[in-house]
Amino acid sequence: MDFLKQLFERILSIFPRIWLVEPNEGGVRCTCGKYYRSIRPGAYLYWPLIQNITTVNIAQQIKDIRCQSVMTQDCVDMAAGGAIKYRIKDACAAILKVQDYDQTLQALSLGIISRYINNRNYADINSINDIEGCVLKGIREDARGWGIDVMSVYITDLGRAQNIRLLTNGNVSIGGITNETSQVT
Known about the structure:
- By secondary structure, this protein is an alpha+beta fold.
- The chain has 2 domains: 2-57; 61-160, Band 7 domain (Tetrahydropterin Synthase, Chain A, 2-Layer Sandwich), CATH 3.30.479.30.
- 27% of the residues lie in helices and 41% in strands.
- The protein contains 4 helices and 10 strands.
- It has helices at 2-12, 91-96, 101-118, 128-142; strands at residues 17-21, 25-31, 35-39, 42-46, 51-57, 61-71, 77-88, 148-160, 170-174, 177-181.
- The chain has a 3-stranded antiparallel sheet. The protein has a 3-stranded antiparallel sheet with strand order 6-7-8.
């Protein structure tokens, strides 16, 4: 039965179709895997056999920056996390020049926050506004050409933390549960 369904879909791919791009979307129409053109909201006629249309949401979005543990220059453990507010200003660049811009923005932000805190002593970290400004500037520089407009960065979590790393060989008992392992991190 799947064979008939696939055959029917292949036959229908010969005929042109209409693709609707919603008002909050932007996209790219790629022809023969080589030629591409940016598309805006509206109706488009495309040939499924030789064309592919990909769309993305261009409205403002907020991406969570998960909390991470970071050590300052004077070996104080800290935890930092936040959020990024951005919008897609060029859907073509966002689709073609970076893979999964949400995850890439999050990883980029984590790296910039980590670098900021690693290069300072605990006493020198006195303002969340300084961190937000540094992260915003870093993301804008690193994400240049991706078609993304980073509007603001928010540091929602910042504080001292206690990291415990347990390295052992043999049996480890945590909370009354024994686990035989060679290394636990």
